[in-house]
Amino acid sequence: MNEIFFLVNEDRTIEAASDMACEVFGLGFPDEPVRIDRYLPVVYVDAIFSRACEGDIRNKSMSFPVRNASGREVNLETRFNWFTMDGRDLLAMTCRVTDRYLAAISDLTAKEDLYRTIFHESPLGFIHINSDGIVADCNTVFLNIFGFIRDQVIGLCLADEGKLKHFSRFCDAAMNAIRGVGCTYEAPFSTPEGLGSRKGWVRVSFSPIVSATKCFLGAVGIVEDISEGKYAEEKVEFISNHDALTGLFNRALVEIDRPENLPIGVIYVDLNHLKLANDAFGHREGDALLQKCASILNANTNRLGGDEFLLLLKNTDRSEIRTRVARIGHMCQVWAGEGLVRPSMAIGSAVKIFEKQDIEEVIKEAEDTMYANKLRNGPLVRKRLITTLETKLQELMDGAVGERSKRMVLWGDWMLKNLFFTEEVDRKHLRLLCRYHDIGMLASADELKLIRVSPATRRAVTPMQHMAVGYRIARSVSEIHPIADYILSHHEHWDGSGYPNQQEGTEIPYLSRLVSIFDAIEGMLSLNARANRPSFCEVLDSIEACAGKQYDPEIVESIVTRLRGKTIFVDYLEG
Description:
- The protein is an alpha+beta fold.
- Helix content is 44%, strand content 19%.
- Strand 8 (183-190) and strand 9 form a beta hairpin.
- Helix 8 runs antiparallel to helix 16.
């Protein structure tokens, strides 16, 4: 017998015991009678006999600690009752050591707490659906992913699709798991109206739940928010197919050469002045110019690299191509956005009409046409560029630079007619230099703020950089290319203390030496505040004082000697 069993008479003497009782308590049944209270605490034995005499069977059980044969304390659950055998009243006691049972209960509770913690604290969303398709439980992550509140989900029957019309695929997967068929899928989602406007991607896995005893317990769903990874994949795919700066397609996506797309219109575009924008104003201005071009062209444009773009337009004939080209040109002309360089494009076009034509040959035809147009229209394009830069400079300076440049040109013309110079002077180059010597101020905001003060004040306040910018602009435009070196040197000093290259003496180009004096005289005579404006004699004195230091002494002597007392400057001041 594997149970602990005692048969005890009214004198509390043990008359019989099971083998398990003998093993647990070391019971040997010697010749003299053995009392039960030798093995069980007297207080509990008294209570057992007292309760055994009561009529209520619910009181005929008791749990208490005892010591076994090895002296270890164990918990004993005892059930007892009186019965009569051979005319004698005997107490039957059935006992069970509950330590293992309690340990099993404790272990089960710990495991339940562990699984509940895993369920509710997991970084993944969990949902438990019972065998009737009703949501029994879900964790906070699940609620957060879909924007639900707990009361909306618990008790919801997923078979009722009307309540979750935005989640039909989710409900179908859950119900299939209830039928024993698990699945995993990825899908976009958006929260229902009234629950916010969150959108994203999820990976959902549903599995049926079957216990070790083959009892069906419903289904469990695991939901992972994969929005960040999915968007990263989409970004990588976009980058692989698009130009990073402009967002336009790259050449790898040119895949429309198919019969159903005929005729295929081809427009080849070369962006003018990109080198100027990069060299003169920096790559930020160059990038801005590329982005302007992308906004004028459309999303179907392919950037071939550098300043070239390709549009392949399916089902587009020559008439539509001409309309498209005219619209691009018009948008460049009316551009009113920000930036120092207005967008300008050289454009060529061609059309693939027949299937047998090689698309690469058609693209080459459009490219050749573009280069022919670029060569033919180059002078006009560059003239417009110079006009645009001048206009932009006037806008930035409220017209002050324009008036100053005009007076500088008049200075040059008058002096060429009335003064003698030791070197031959190219009148065209002198006029260009008088007009454009400060063109570099477009990219020198700090200097623009000081344009109306005297040159000496400007030098004291900020080191001027506009000569280098003006030099790069002139080098990029053939019409003013001959004066690039003169622009760079017009702030050099005779004694080598100027900038940017500290040239001295005759190292400085003759036209630069001339214009530096014109610029100084004009600057002092055109000061806004009449009270601070020096007299013409004072201006000449100032120039003469700087001879041999800042200015070429021979040029100063020639100018000062011939200008003192000339009434033309009275007219100049009054006018």
